[in-house]
Amino acid sequence: MRGARSSIILLSALLLGIFITFWNIYELSLLQKEHMRFHTDRKESTHNTYPVKANENTVNKPVFWIHGKNLNKGYLSHVIDVLERVGYTRGDGTNHWDVLWSHEYPFTQLKSVIDKLEPHQKINHFPGTGYITNKVYLATSGIKFIPKAFSLPAQKTNFLEEAKQNPEKLWVQKSSSHRGIRVKPVEELDLGKQDTFVQEYIHNPLLIDGRKFDIGVYITLTSVDPLRVYILHDEILIRFCPKDYKPIDFKDVDKYVVGDDYTPTWEMPSLKKYYTEHSMSFKETLNSYLRSQDKDPDFIYRQVYEAIAGLFLNKNKNLMKSLDKMTHKRAYFELMRCDFVLDEDLNVYLMEVNMSPNLSSAHFEGNKHLYEQVIYNSLSVSGIARNVPASLKSRPAYVKDFQVSERDIAVAMEECANEESCDSCTEETCKLCQKCLSADEKEILKDAYMEHLNRRSTRRVYPEPMTQEDAQNYDTGEDASLEANDRLMRAWFRAKCLQDISWCQ
Q1: Rounded distance between C-alpha atoms, residue 384 and residue 16, angstroms
Q2: Is 339 strand, coil or helix?
Q3: Transmembrane residues, as ranges (predicted)?
Q4: What is the pLDDT of residues 218-228, one digit of tens each?
Q5: E strand map for 12-170
Q6: Helical residues (DSSP H) of 364-430, grouped into ranges
């Protein structure tokens, strides 16, 4: 009897355990369903609030395409690498694209593409920059810092008069292709040759280790109306002639003409310790050497800034005239290289401005970092390399709004707060007040604001850098001859400089 009772108790306990187990499984099933329903609802809610969030890193990436001859040779490989590193994907121009990088001047070869340009698209050339980069136009501009030159055969008579009055001067005949350069006596020059010019030769060049050299300064043009130009401030290209300058023999151009097979900085005995042993930049290598010779490198760069600003001011009407033909005025930016030579007194001479300067380190691997920095800084200040890596076309308004708002561009607070004096917006001091600015003028100031934030190692060449004292005491009458947008731009930078010293440079 006792055994039967024990069996019944054991069986009851077993059945109770099975019942409890099934009940727990049922409860867990209900909890799991509730959990899944909660997260499904939350996911749907999130999707509705932030559309295309999951695909932003793939579908919405900005697209660039490259145009040029023989691209398979790799001369634009650094451009491609940098664009990909800052979040772009490469296209072929047949479908959607954001940025076009063309090695050639695109306004004739790609006219059909440019005619259909959309507001968000960017191109790495401005229309009309041939007035700056064409060697004949540049040399015969009569601009300070450019050696005197005469266009042939049109100015043949003027040249002969100059040569007669200054028999000690040396002259070199050049063509637009920059080939066949050689110093010759006046009687040996071909003064009837079309598309050439004769230019005064700088007879007392500064030499380092007995070699003549030039320096390449990289600039980025971000706007023509108003004019804004930036310089790569902390680096330059230095190229030395392959042979010693003295004793001079003008039949041997390797002594005084910098060609493709130039001697690089790291092979110059007096510069090796700075560049190689102490890992200085090209610019600081040159600066350190000059200081060791009791020379002031700042004297050079003050002239460089003045020369570049003067050049673009001189040519800006030509640029604006070319830009007026375009539908979208803010679709362009341009990287150029200005080549200067120095004389023994550190006076600088602007010899040429290169459209699409060499950016390939195939010949000199040591220039790789320089070229990458040139490209990255140019893309950054021009707004191509951005902190928000999405297509320029689909970028919603709030993305730009949180980067720069109307409060960021507000200046002249005290004047604008005086309702009586600025009620009609006719006074010059009121032009920068928010209520007096047009929608287009606000966009101009927002572009300038973003360029300043994104300038990295570039610095403003025009509008010119200044001190706060300069800004405070500036005579606005000096701007009277400028176009309206240029007057506005310069006044705004002066006002920002007075607000914050970082805006003075």
Answers
A1: 72
A2: strand
A3: 7-26
A4: 999 999 999 99
A5: 63-67, 89-90, 99-102, 122-123, 149-152
A6: 368-381, 397-403, 413-417
What are residue 217's DSSP bridge partners?
338
d(CA 474, CA 468): 10
Q: What is the mean pLDDT of residues 237-249?
A: 98
CA 390 to the chain's CA centroid: 20
d(CA 52, CA 55): 5
| E runs forming strands in 292-441 | 334-342, 348-355
- Do the Cβ atoms of 123 and 375 come closer than 8 Å? no
Query: Whose structure tokens read 């308004």?
Result: 397
Confidence check: pLDDT of 56 > 60: no
Structure tokens belonging to residue 483: 């176009």
Q: Which of 340-354, 390-404, 474-488 has the highest mean pLDDT?
A: 340-354
Q: What is the CA radius of gyration of the chain?
A: 32
Q: Which two tokens stand for residue 7?
A: 């069996």
**Rounded distance, CA 251 to CA 184, Å?**
9
pTM: predicted TM-score of the whole model, two decimal places: 0.86
Residues 201/428, Cβ–Cβ less than 8 Å: no
Partners of 416 in the β-ladder:
none
145's torsion region: left (phi>0), alpha (psi -120 to 50) or beta? Answer: left
* Predicted local confidence at residue 262, as pLDDT: 98
Q: Based on the number of CB atoms within 10 Å of its own CB, is 411 exposed (0-12), middle (13-18) or buried (19 or more)?
A: buried
Residue 37 has pLDDT above 80, yes or no: no
What pLDDT digit, counting tens, does each position of 408-448 carry?
Answer: 999 977 778 876 778 788 887 788 999 999 999 999 999 99
The distance of Cα 5 from the centroid of its chain, to the nearest Å, equals 96
Whether the CB-CB separation of 360 and 247 falls below 8 Å is answered with no
**φ/ψ (deg, to 5) at 244:** -60, 145
- CA–CA separation, 334 and 224 (whole Å): 11
Asked whether the CA dihedral 432, 433, 436, 439 is positive or negative, the reply is: positive
Residue in this structure with the two tokens 């100059």, named with its chain if needed: 162
